[in-house]
Amino acid sequence: MPSPLTVLIDPWRMHPLAWLHRVEARAIIAELRAAGQPVDVAAFVPGALPQAARILLRLSDPVMVDAVRLLTAYGIAYLGPGAAALVCCYDKWIACRTLRAAGVDCPETRFAADAAALARPLVLKPRRGSDSIGLRVMRSGAVPAPLRNQHTIAQTQLFGAELTVAVIGGIAGMPLRIDLPEGVPYTFLRKYLWRPRCAPLADHTLATRVQQAALGAARALGVDWAARIDLIHERASGRVFILECDAAPLVGPASAFAASLTAGGMTRAEQLARLLCEA
What we know:
By secondary structure, the chain is an alpha+beta fold. 32% of the residues lie in helices and 23% in strands. It has 3 domains: 5-79, Rossmann fold (3-Layer(aba) Sandwich), CATH 3.40.50.20; 109-155, no CATH class; 158-275, 2-Layer Sandwich (D-amino Acid Aminotransferase, Chain A, domain 1), CATH 3.30.470.20.
């Protein structure tokens, strides 16, 4: 009999990320119980951390950051992203600087306050955030005054095929192409309400390049558990650029993370074993 597992989830609150991650957690819990794994569930409460032998974190990014910092400070072991990797990836400014220092291609990035010299159109997004909440495209003109700060970053918009790929344990899944018209941003609503079709990349040479780029980015960012990396294959130059690395991705059975690994030949049972560090 496997040792009991406690799945730590978001406390209920009126926020779309809490709802998404609680739904995903329920799906993973159902999978694990169906496989004979004893599972308990606990909501993350800073003053009442679980005293379980094994803890799996299934939390939204902002709550995950708090939980990882607290668990690490108290020396409580858990299954999930390490604090350094999570904080680096959650801060898009730091992540882009880290990638560029490692020689990994990513869009030119500046604080929105310093974006006057960047070519338009621009992609504006919160420096710290997840799931493309707050992302917007500015096609011309000056950055609006309320966004000219160091909490908002600006990136040159790239045009080409949007891709996503899962990474776990030094293995990259099959890149998935997101069926969006060029220049249409992959916003929160498109990710979760008006979901475009995603299909395995048919060009195997390009797929290998994308996998290598994703693994290089994961190494540079210190990814030590699971990640989903978004990229773009720029039509004009043929280069592959890293757009974002989510070090606390949705990993449920219906996620792009699971689909990428499945398309790459990794069974769902092996995915779960790797997520639980049993592989």
